[in-house]
């Protein structure tokens, strides 16, 4: 009886948090607006700024180590060109993905470097007009280092504190498999298993653009949420049903233009100061027909006015407000988690919306409370 009561009370506490209707604040590459993205500094700062999740990308090294990097080519975010011992590693390659993306690149590639060599590099800010004062100070993390960070944060968390999770993007699966002769999905699953988090959906989520990769991740890691990323127009109801019913996926992550509607070309979504929003579209509503727990995440919210639609008066707060309260998405992927955290806390301080709750709102919460009270009375009578 005591165990039954405890389970009910824990369910009540969990439901209470979800019933508050707060969309997740997801730090895109960490707090990448203020610090070099995909570094331990950016992740730590994002957690301090109130992120619910730390989003990261993955690549693979020559010695089959999974590292945290946005692409296989190193020069966009590291100083590899300035390290004399690596001068002979410059190569031409064609990067490709399962979803018909190809790109010819001449650069230095992760699969041509060992993890020890990668650790000799230093990161820099990807976007030229952002603060560069932290350039040259941070290494490229391994995936296991990022996992260890969220495990440590979880172990130090007080009962009333927010849990911080990882949202791991698994990209270019066939490309890395071809270049390293090892399955990228299996390497990631091995790291998660080695760190004891392959059955921790509270702190590990996965996402990918590639359908074959999504299916393989769900096969290898059936207890972890997997989201299908999409940036082209035309996610049909049939696709949503296939992803949910056949592949058992847990949601979608989409370019914000797909939820906002308006004048951007949906097949090449651009969301700039010239963009006029007409939405929200019906995408969130249609996705929720797959079940309330089928999540919709949008990317990427940024504070700089060049990235914000004209409709929002180039105001990052107004943009985040639209997606959180009008479009009612489940997750806001942002370069500036501190901005979105303030917006979410302000808008949902006393709200009871239905995001994440199976039957929605205050009535269900009261019913669960009544059940807990009844069970408590039964316990006292025993």
From TrEMBL:
Name a single GO biological process: lipid metabolic process
Picking any one GO molecular function of the record gives: glycerophosphodiester phosphodiesterase activity
- Cleaved signal peptide residues: 1-21
Tell me one Pfam family matched here. GDPD
Q: What is its EC number?
A: 3.1.4.46
- In this chain the GP-PDE domain maps to 23-344
Ordered alphabetically, the record's keywords are: Glycerol metabolism, Hydrolase, Signal
Tell me what reaction this enzyme catalyses.
a sn-glycero-3-phosphodiester + H2O = an alcohol + sn-glycerol 3-phosphate + H(+)
Query: Which superkingdom heads the taxonomic lineage of this protein's source?
Result: Eukaryota
Q: Which InterPro entries is this protein grouped with?
A: GP_PDE_dom (IPR030395), PLC-like_Pdiesterase_TIM-brl (IPR017946)
Q: Which PANTHER family match?
A: GLYCEROPHOSPHODIESTER PHOSPHODIESTERASE GDPD5-RELATED, GLYCEROPHOSPHORYL DIESTER PHOSPHODIESTERASE
Identify its protein family.
Belongs to the glycerophosphoryl diester phosphodiesterase family.
Entry protein name: glycerophosphodiester phosphodiesterase
Which species does the entry assign this protein to?
Macrostomum lignano
């Amino acid at each position: 009886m005591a165990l039954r009561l405890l389970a009910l009370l824990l369910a009540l506490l969990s439901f209470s948090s979800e019933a508050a209707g707060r969309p997740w604040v997801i730090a895109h590459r960490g707090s990448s607006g203020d610090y070099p993205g995909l570094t331990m500094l950016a992740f730590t700062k994002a957690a301090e700024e109130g992120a619910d999740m730390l989003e990261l990308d993955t690549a693979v090294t020559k010695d089959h180590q999974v590292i945290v990097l946005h692409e296989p080519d190193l020069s966009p975010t590291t100083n590899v060109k300035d390290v004399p011992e690596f001068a002979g590693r410059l190569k031409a390659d064609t990067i490709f993905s399962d979803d018909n993306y190809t790109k010819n690149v001449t650069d230095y590639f992760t699969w041509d470097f060992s993890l020890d060599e990668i650790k000799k590099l230093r990161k820099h800010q990807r976007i030229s007009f952002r603060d560069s004062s932290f350039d040259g100070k941070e290494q490229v993390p391994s995936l296991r280092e990022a996992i260890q960070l969220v495990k440590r944060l979880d172990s130090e968390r007080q009962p009333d504190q927010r849990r911080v999770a990882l949202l791991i993007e698994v990209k270019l699966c066939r490309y890395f498999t071809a270049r390293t002769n090892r399955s990228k999905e299996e390497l990631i699953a091995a790291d998660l298993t080695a760190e004891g988090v392959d059955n921790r959906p509270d702190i590990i989520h996965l996402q990918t653009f590639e359908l074959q990769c999504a299916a393989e991740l769900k096969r290898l890691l059936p207890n972890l949420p997997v989201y299908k990323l999409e940036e082209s127009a035309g996610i049909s109801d049939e696709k949503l049903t296939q992803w949910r019913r056949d592949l058992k996926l847990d949601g979608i992550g989409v370019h914000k233009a797909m939820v906002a509607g308006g004048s951007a070309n949906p097949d090449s979504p651009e969301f700039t100061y010239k963009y006029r929003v007409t939405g929200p579209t019906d995408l969130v509503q249609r996705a929720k027909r797959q079940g309330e727990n089928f999540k919709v995440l949008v990317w990427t919210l940024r504070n700089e006015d060049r990235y914000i639609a004209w409709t929002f008066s180039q105001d990052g707060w107004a943009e985040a407000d639209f997606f959180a309260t009008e479009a009612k998405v489940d997750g806001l992927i942002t370069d500036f988690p501190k901005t979105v955290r303030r917006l979410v806390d302000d808008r949902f301080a006393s709200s009871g919306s239905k995001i994440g709750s199976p039957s929605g709102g205050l009535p269900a919460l009261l019913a669960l409370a009544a059940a807990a009270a009844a069970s408590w009375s039964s316990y006292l009578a025993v």
